[in-house]
Amino acid sequence: MKTSIVIVNYRTPDLCIQCLNSLLCLEHWGLSVGSLIIDNNSNDGSLDSLHIWQKNVNTFVNFKIIPSSVNKGFSSGNNIGINASDGEFVLLLNSDTIVRPGAVELLVKTLKDNPQMGMASPRLEWTDGTPQESCFRFHRPINELIRSAATGPITRLFKRYEVPLRVSDNVIYPEWTSFACVLIRRQVFEDIGLLDEEFFMYFEDVDFCKRAREAGWNIIHNPEAHVVHLRGGSSPVKSQAAKKKRLPRYFYESRSRYYHKHFGRFGLFRANIYWHLGWLVAMGRKLFSNSYQPNICEKQWRDIWTNFCNPAAPYIHPDNY
Fold first, then answer.
1. Which of 78, 168, 163 lies closest to 124 in space, CA to CA?
2. Calpha distance 243→297 (Å, rounded)
3. Beta strands 181-185 and 62-67: pairing type?
4. Which of 20, 96, 303, 304 has the greatest number of beta carbons closer than 10 A?
5. 4 in Cβ contact with 16 (< 8 Å)
6. How far apart (Å, rounded) are the C-alpha atoms in residues 122 and 222?
7. Residue among 291, 166, 298 nearest 245 (CA)
8. d(CA 230, CA 272)
C-alpha cells in the first residue's frame, strides 16, 4: 500500500527543507512512499532552493517538485498534489512541520487497522515536546459567543460546544482535526471530492472533515505518532491573533463561507450576533478588571461581517488587498 505525501510551499523554503529532511527517516521503516512538493508560485527563490536540496539528497524516497504558476491558496495547492499522487493513503503535511521517526508508519498502521476510519492524525507538539491542541469539535454559531466573551461562566455553560478538545494521551475520535498533518484514505476523496478551493486559507479542513463525516467517514487521532508543528511558520494568522492584531481578509471570507455553507444564511447571521453578544460581555468585564484581556482582534467587530451579503462570493486574493 503506497503512501503519498503532499507538502505545499509558499515562501518557506528553509522550513520546507527542514520538513523534507525529517522525512528521510522513512527509508528505515520500509514504507512505499512518494513525496510531492507543490510550490505555490512563491517567486522568492524557493524553487531553486528545493531543486538544489533534491539534487544533493541521497534517499530512496521519491521527491517530486511541482511548480504552480499561480497561488490559489492552501486547498488548491494540496489538490494539485492529491491529483498528482497515486498512493492509497495521502498525507497532507504543512511545510512548517518536523516529522518524528515512526510517525508516518504509525499513522498508516492506524488506518490499516481501522478500515472504517477515513483519516488519522498525530499528536502535534512544539520542539520541546509540549503538546498542541489539534483535535476539535465543529464550529457552530454558538461558538462565536464562547470565543468572543472569553469568560469562565459562559465557557463552562456551553462547555459541550467549545471547539478545542483537551489534549489526550489516548486514542480519540474528534469531529475534525488539524490539517497541519493528516493522513487521508484515497477512498475519502473518491467519495466526497477534494478540498474546497473556494476557501483560500482556513476553514477548509473543518469543511472537508464535516463533508467526510456526513459521508460516513470518521477520524481517529493517535497521539503515539508525534509531529512538531512550528505554528505561524506558514501563515501569519495565529501570531496576529495572539497579538490581537487585525487578521487577513481571507480568514473572514472563509469564516463566512463556512457558516453559510453548513448552517445557511440564518446560521451565519446567528454566528455574527452571538459574536457581538460575547463582545458586549467582554467589554463589560474589561470595565471592572484591568487585568482582563479580551479575546478580540483589531476591527474584528466589523470584519466578521465580511461577505455577509454574499457569503459564496469568490475570495479576494491577498495580492490584491
1. 168
2. 8
3. unpaired
4. 20
5. no
6. 5
7. 298
8. 31
Q: Cα 258 to the chain's mean position, in Å?
A: 14
The amino acid present at 72, given as its one-letter code, is K
Grid coordinates of 291: 487585568
> What is the distance in angstroms between the CA of the first residue and the CA of the last residue of the chain?
44
For 208-247, the DSSP string reads HHHHHHHTT-EEEEEEEEEEEE-TTSS-SHHHHHHTTPPP
Question: For residues 77 and 81, what is the distance between their CA atoms, to the nearest angstrom?
Answer: 7
Dump pLDDT digits (tens) for 30-58: 678 899 999 999 999 999 999 999 999 98
Cβ pair 140, 263 in contact under 8 A: yes
d(CA 133, CA 162): 13
Calpha distance 144→276 (Å, rounded) = 8
Instruction: Record the cell numbers describing residue 224, joined without a space.
Output: 503515539
Contacts of 60 (CB under 8 A, 6+ apart): 27
Alpha-carbon span 121 to 107, nearest angstrom: 7
Residue keyed to cell 455553507: 261
Q: Which amino acid is at 253?
A: E
* pLDDT tens-place values along the chain, 321 residues long: 799 999 999 999 999 999 999 999 876 566 788 999 999 999 999 999 999 999 999 877 789 999 999 999 999 999 999 999 999 999 999 999 999 999 999 999 999 999 999 999 999 999 999 999 999 999 999 999 999 999 999 999 999 999 999 999 999 999 999 999 999 999 999 999 999 999 999 999 999 999 999 999 999 999 999 999 998 766 778 778 888 999 999 999 999 999 999 999 999 999 999 999 999 999 999 999 988 989 899 999 999 999 999 999 999 999 998
Domain boundaries, the chain: 3-132+167-231, 238-320
Q: Do 158 and 142 touch, CB atoms closer than 8 A?
A: yes
